[in-house]
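Give me structure tokens for this 471-residue protein.
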Amino acid sequence: MTELARHSKRLPNVQNVPDSSPTPLRVAVLADSDTRWKWGALTALRIAPESTVHGYLLWGRATPTARQLAEIGAEADELTEINAVDFLAEQGRRARAGADEPPFDVLVLACVGGTTQAMLHGLARVWRGLERRPVVVTGYVGVVYEKLSDGLLLRHGADLVLANSRYDAGRFRAVYDGVRAGSASVTECALPFLGGTPYDPGPARRGERPTRVVFAVQPSVPHGRAERAYLLERAMAHARRNPEREVVLKLRSKPSEHTTHIEELPYQRLAERAKDAWPKNFRLAYGNMGEILDGTDLLVTVSSTAALEALERSIPTAVLTDLGVREPLGNHYFIGSGCLASWDELDDGLLPTPDAHWLAEQGITRGTESVEHGFAVARGRLAGLLDQRRLTGLPALSPYYTPRTAPGYLPTLLARHGLDTKGEPLAAQPSTGTDAGMRAASRRLLRRTARGAYRAGAQRVAPLIRRWGQL
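Here you go.
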């Protein structure tokens, strides 16, 4: 059994709601990292309950490993690793196959903005003249605290651009309307991984288990060695100061793995170097964030989306101010939340109290209504588009960026993904579907080797060269 085949099953632990469609929808999800796969796969079953899901993992620096896929827990009926040009070729072939191989009903693009834009242009080409094309959905994995206009305009052209809250929906529409791009695609919903067991402080208060403080670290925030070492030391110092507590450093990935963002200096490497100084009540942990939160009494982070997951469950949550409240850190997004705090304040026993209005703007219900309610509008919009597709057909995809609106930007962006401004491949590439036998095996081995070399270069060699340059 291949690594991918182990994850070609139904998506577990997703609350399904009855679907009004007479038959299950066929949904494809294209993702380029572990977190985006998690968002895309779970979003697919939130907006299209009981659907069948075919997952495509886009080959690149951050293609998730089997361990990362298992940790996420979001699995598919089928899962394929593929490059951008082959993906487009396959979608064109499927769309024209007719009854023998019907196209997907929905395609979720769970990719970085530039990749999403390239796929929109490529799909517009391969679906040209087809009225019964799939409905295209895209959105964001978590809080949008940087590159708002850039990321949004790169996603323009999808049929549905999902906003994770009322606050985001207003911002998204303002950007699209402000450039005369049209904002009808913006649809308010929620983060698909919110929910889970509400927080129960009873076991810790009764002494049935230690009070558990979880520091959820991020791959790229903060960036510098000194800042990361400082936060690690403060977490260990909190453990020393509170020996009755358990302090857990929640890690995103192992040093050989990549996530959405490059982690040049993994926390576990810093922690291993300081292992002699570890308090007995301090430990490292991997695993599914939802499972970690099940036993968490205080979630601490710089700006991770895990804060929203914790707040939805009513878990006390602290967004650190030790390194300042700054845009590069992303913690400025939490201004007004009531959650900003320093390690000094947490050492003194502070449990931040979140602001109810801020929570409501972020779509955080804290158990007052089902998380599924946040997807009701999105399901309705999708149903309307599917009806339009069946009755009259859908219009051609029309991204805001074109050779006319962005002649100095779009060609370079598309070229990074092997496409020209017409969405055509820049050079003929053999489809992976035509390979067979030893040739296919050799190609797969070459890709795995190249990916490993790329990851090693990006994570180990490049940072070393940059440090040499600073000497």
